[in-house]
């Protein structure tokens, strides 16, 4: 069966499982962090509108492609994992996304307990 013959839920499930499989090649700490983040994001977008779903799938497919390139065919990191965020892309994020990104950065560096809220971002 070809990818374009799959239903939307089947494509989502395939992407989700592909990403979790790719994470097996990450260092242990990053794998746990990445797996938890992916599970949370996919759960959070279960009932999003079609436009958000298309953007969601496009961005996660791009992520899977990037990880595939960085891990290579054998699933071993070929250098630095991840990529730097474009400043313009960060500026386009919603307040709650900035908070989530900040908390993800803290977790990736092993820093816990220093969290901010969307109100902190808005300066309230």
TrEMBL record:
GO terms for biological process: mitochondrial respiratory chain complex II assembly; succinate metabolic process. InterPro entries: SDHAF3/Sdh7. Interacts with the iron-sulfur protein subunit within the SDH catalytic dimer. Pfam families: Complex1_LYR_2. Keywords: Chaperone, Mitochondrion, Transit peptide. This is Succinate dehydrogenase assembly factor 3. It is found in: Mitochondrion matrix. One of its GO terms (cellular component) is mitochondrial intermembrane space. The lineage of its organism: Eukaryota, Metazoa, Ecdysozoa, Arthropoda, Hexapoda. Plays an essential role in the assembly of succinate dehydrogenase (SDH), an enzyme complex (also referred to as respiratory complex II) that is a component of both the tricarboxylic acid (TCA) cycle and the mitochondrial electron transport chain, and which couples the oxidation of succinate to fumarate with the reduction of ubiquinone (coenzyme Q) to ubiquinol. Promotes maturation of the iron-sulfur protein subunit of the SDH catalytic dimer, protecting it from the deleterious effects of oxidants. May act together with SDHAF1. Its main location: mitochondrion. It comes from the Eukaryota. The gene is Dwil\GK18007.
């Amino acid at each position: 069966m070809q990818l374009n013959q799959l239903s939307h839920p089947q494509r989502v499930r395939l992407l989700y499982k592909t990403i979790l499989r790719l994470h097996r090649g990450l260092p242990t700490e990053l794998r746990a962090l990445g797996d938890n983040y992916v599970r949370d994001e996919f759960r959070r977008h279960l009932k999003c509108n079609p436009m958000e779903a298309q953007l969601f799938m496009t961005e996660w497919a791009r992520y899977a492609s990037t990880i595939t390139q960085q891990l290579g065919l054998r699933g071993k990191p070929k250098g630095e994992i991840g990529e730097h965020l474009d400043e313009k892309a960060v500026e386009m994020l919603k307040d709650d996304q900035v908070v989530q990104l900040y908390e993800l950065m803290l977790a990736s560096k092993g820093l816990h307990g220093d969290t901010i809220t969307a109100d902190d971002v808005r300066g309230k």
